[in-house]
Amino acid sequence: MNILEKFQTLIILSGVGMGLLLGQLPVVEQNAGAFIIPFILLMLYGLFLTIPIQNLKDAFKHIKFLSTSTLINFVWSPLLAWALGAIFLSDHPALWIGFIMLMVTPCTDWYLMFTAVARGNVPLSASLLPVNFILQILLLPVYLLIFSGTITAVPFNTVLESIVLVIFLPFIIAHLTRLLFKNRKNLLEDKLIPFFSSAQILFLTMAITAMFASQGAYLTNNPEVLFIMMIPVLLFFIINFIVAQTAGRVMNFSYADTVSLNMTIIARNSPVALAIAVTAFVDQPLVALVLVIGPLIELPVLAIISQILLLFRKRRG
Fold first, then answer.
1. CATH code for position 154
2. How many CB atoms lie within 10 A of CB 199?
3. Within a domain: residue 114?
4. What is the largest CA-CA distance in the chain?
5. Residue 17 lies in a domain
6. What's the whole-model pTM score?
7. d(Cα 308, Cα 310) in Å, to the nearest integer?
8. pLDDT per residue over 60-94, tens digit each?
9. Are 170 and 45 spatial neighbours (Cβ–Cβ below 8 Å)?
10. Is residue 317 a part of any domain in this protein?
């Protein structure tokens, strides 16, 4: 765990604070929005460069675990997110859309850190990365059109353009990078990939800073957003923690495998959803703000869950 991973919550929070501060300057507020997408593209390029797609076959060596986590992540969790939104966010459609976008995308990075902290099966968790990554890219627009379509009109063309711009463009460039450096693996694996692996949080923080500098007034004018989001977000994590523990017992998973299941169905991948939100919902900035608020709640929750799981491990002896 490097220093950036250890202090991700504080780094993201500092980006929010810096953005709100810089946003007080009219010239910054008017121009900061132009930097959001470039920083997100850099962040996603680094993410796509570091995801080991070539290891996709490793996940299918653990078919029972793969099928359990996939069913929970891509069937149960989207339905749970929609239901919690219907109960708590029906009067706030933009927050409901942002909440759904946050909760239908499993994490592809920091959940490995918390898996290690809780003494989970890190290699097993790592094998899920390419599966979760591919499925969320394919299914996010489907969830967006199905669930968000029940909340407000979502133009298909807008969603498609957003996906092409912020998902497929950096993915293609990352793939081309791997091809270009195919014969220079030392440079790719020893320099580029480690740099972008560490720099992802910095690019994300810069995008968040730019977002709050340009749109922070929406949060300062609507501070109740934090309190409105707190209950459904926490309930999502608590319910999925119970689901993971129950599934682990039913499927007779070991402690380490149950930890891995916990982390992959609780941790969310807000950067991917955020990238689509800032382009598909330009006129509804609260959608994107939800995806920034989410990790501020999520990361401390994951730290607490890690410690709870370690207590369970001690009791099991």
1. 1.20.1530.20
2. 15
3. yes
4. 60
5. yes
6. 0.79
7. 5
8. 888 999 999 999 999 999 999 999 999 999 999 88
9. yes
10. no
